[in-house]
Amino acid sequence: MLVELSVKQKFLTLCGITAAAMAASLAIGQRLIPQSILTGVVFYLISGERPSTVYASIVSLPRDIRTAIIFLKLNLCLYRYERAGATVVQIFERVVARQPNKVAFLMDDGQLTFAQVKQLADRVAAHFYAKGFRKGDTIALLMETRLEYPCIWLGLSKVGIVTALINSNLRKETLRHSITVANSKAIIVSTELAGAIAEINEQEGIKGLPVHLFRSDGAPDTDSSSSSSDPLPDAEDLRLSLDSSGSSSSNVDLSAIPNDISPKDKLVYIYTSGTTGMPKAAVITNLRYTFMALGCYYMLSFRDDDIIYNSLPLYHSAGGMIGVGSVLLCGVTAALRKKFSASNFWTDCIRYKCTVAQYIGEICRFVLMTPPKPTDTQHSVRLMFGNGLRPQIWPQFVSRFNIQQIGEFYGSTEGNSNLLNIDNTMGAVGFVPNFAKAIYPVTLIRCDEETGEIIRGPDGFCIKCKAGEPGVFVGKINPKKALNSFVGYADKAASEKKVLHDVFRKGDIFFNSGDILVQDLLGNYYFKDRTGDTFRWRGENVATSEVEGVITTIVGLKDCAVYGVDIPETEGKAGMAAIVDPEGKVDLEQLAAGIRASLPAYARPLFIRVLSEVPMTTTFKLKKRDLQVDGYDLGKIQDPIYFLQSNGTYRRFTVDDHETIKSGKARL
User: Considering the entire predicted model, what is its pTM?
Assistant: First the structure.
């Protein structure tokens, strides 16, 4: 409850805040903001704000001023591009004109300069235009990481063709769905993946969809199985066709291609990871791609001579939009790898002289699990950025590998609510300064953490969360601004499900991230859980991500997934943890002791399942749905399951235990 401050209390508070202001002014450097101005700000703020809010404003002032300067540079750049009607291709061509001979992409023993990327993109554009493809058509690209990958979709975008960047690990129905949901009119497939297309072409037929199959051949990594028998005998040899069009851009005539593409036109489709069902094709416009690429470049203070280590899949937003975008639009160099390898991570960084590296999901934990080697600190990487670095291993990671800065960010492929941690605040996924809330209107609103259902007040509007109160992260939608727009998915019905109406006033619309975050007094946001993952047990909400972090640390950084399971005749869901332990090295006594010491009783998993592997997406996110469906049913599961006893230890779960729980007679 707020109370009115007495004159004496105000004076004492002012003295303390003024001292903080002096420290803040010194922290900014060379007293760029005179202490007298800060004191004036304090007098203004204290007249109507809580002391804690005033204190937070002063403490975060150096960070906020630095952010304001960077944010201004970013927005001026975006404004110039948008006003000029510049597309991704046009911005890229400016970069090429500035540095044609600089290396753009490195991979294995090969490389492409910026001029070579443009030459290949031009040949792709001319070829597909000649084939009759036009602006608005969609072509699916199924290809593993290789130097040509960005060149192909970049060339298609010159025509206005939208490229659907298909997950190269998909097969059968999921693959067919991903191609058809984008209304693809053709497929470009690399040789090693031709069998996957042949499989659905023969069995499923890509029902009712006219498909032209192309093959990008000539790669040294073609596997022997595909060379022994051609799964797509009628497919065009795309590499041969492109090579025959000329070896330089001067041989490619692009004059027939209309120059009618705008920043708001679709560029590519990037698919959601599919952790909650079939992948959805998120629409990425030229404007959004530009904003995401430039946002990281400016906010994380990339340097023009940086070399980024990008071992992420190029069909994913982190690897293909932020990583590749930093090259195409900002002129840095990227070293690519076909598939992530924890043991080769630092070796590659040393080989390519990388100064920046990307991560997603569990990559940092995988790297941390490798045995210590001299290469741990022999690299030149000063900055790592990405999303999914668990707070529990953050300090250990930066200490062991001598990383000066972690740029943890938060956001979804399709969303307009993105955050970025630029000041190394451990565990935070980003922040929003007080001054920026009008420009970048994101906030937390109250929800039922178990179901994700939004809680509205008596007036029918949503309720903003206070500092320290978990809530769903939402962002106001403004189609006129790149910062706040939400284009959605190729499936309009799926897009509408992510939109909230009448949030704080009649007629306003917000993007619903579906994620639960917490904000502290300084404006820092921390990821708590995904709506639907949180479950309720013994009257308390259990955040699965927090329990996973604790268990992962106890069992030596092994993979772990935590989820809720139904118990007959019992309210809520009991916790169950699935731990990957193929070698049987997990010490259950030590695990139980660690859980008792670290987690309250309601958050301790009732069941522990020990299995050989956890199903993961290719972007290193755990797939819990299958595990949750299995539950603790011994009729479905061959893996050993352990059951929490009243004394806090675990014993083997038996058929009798299962029958007792099913009958509703178990005392839990």
Answer: 0.81
- Pairing between β-strand 212-216 and β-strand 186-190 as defined by DSSP bridges: parallel
Specify the 3-state DSSP secondary structure of 8.
Answer: helix
Identify the residue whose tokens are 């084939």. 131
Are the beta carbons of 204 and 176 closer than 8 angstroms? yes
Taking every pair of C-alpha atoms in the chain, what is the biggest distance, in angstroms?
88
- Retrieve residue 635's tokens: 């009729």
Beta strands 560-566 and 212-216 are unpaired
Q: What structural domains does the chain harbor?
A: 7-60 (no CATH), 85-215+232-339 (3.40.50.12780), 437-530 (2.30.38.10), 535-663 (3.30.300.30)
CB of 376 closer than 8 Å to CB of 343: no
Q: Which amino acid is at 604?
A: R
430 neighbors 525 (Cβ within 8 angstroms): yes
Looking at residue 276, what DSSP letter applies? T
Mean pLDDT of the chain: 85
Q: Enumerate the β-bridge partners of residue 216.
A: 190
Q: Please tell me the predicted confidence (pLDDT) of residue 3.
A: 36
**Strand ranges in 231-343 using DSSP code E only, listed in sequence order:** 236-237, 266-271, 281-285, 307-310, 333-336
Of the ranges 169-183, 318-332, 414-428, 596-610, which is most confident? 318-332
